[in-house]
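Thread: quick sanity check before group meeting

JM: Hey all, I'm pulling together slides for Thursday and realized we never actually wrote out the predicted structure for the chain we discussed last week. Dropping the sequence here so it's in one place. If anyone has concerns about the input, flag it before I start.
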Amino acid sequence: MRITQKAKLILVIFLFLLFTSSLAFAAGTNTLRHQKNEMKNTGLFDDKDGDGWPNIFDFDADGDGLFFWLEGFFWRDSDKDGVKDYLDRDSDNDSVDDRTEIKLGFNPTDIDTDDDGVSDSEEDRDKDGLADFIEVKIQTKLMTLIQMMMEC
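JM (edit): ok, ran it. Output follows.
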């Protein structure tokens, strides 16, 4: 069965709209679920990111792209949630994961990096009505969809 270019385009648009609407919903509702999940696999000999290395020997135990010495080694807990930053994918608990905050130039241990009174999760530097972190997530997913379409 051959899929036409028009059908591919409709599928991409549908998936894009589905993803962006679920992202906007999740941005406001995932904090409690995030906090519960962050408490899992936090022992020194557990494997938080599932890469086969115990946390004690893993340079990036939480899988957020930051080495543990950049996250305060083993003692810093920026958001005081009981999960050390080296195991916490959202070290400041602002609903934006540390990897995305780094991509945006935000400080992953500060809820309001630029101290303008607007949380990093609500920051909209280009004033288009869409939070910057959602734009990064959309771009990432859109690039994945385009790559999938090119492979068809």
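AS: nice. Residues 5-29 form the longest helix (25 residues). Residues 5-151 form one domain.
JM: adding both to the slides.
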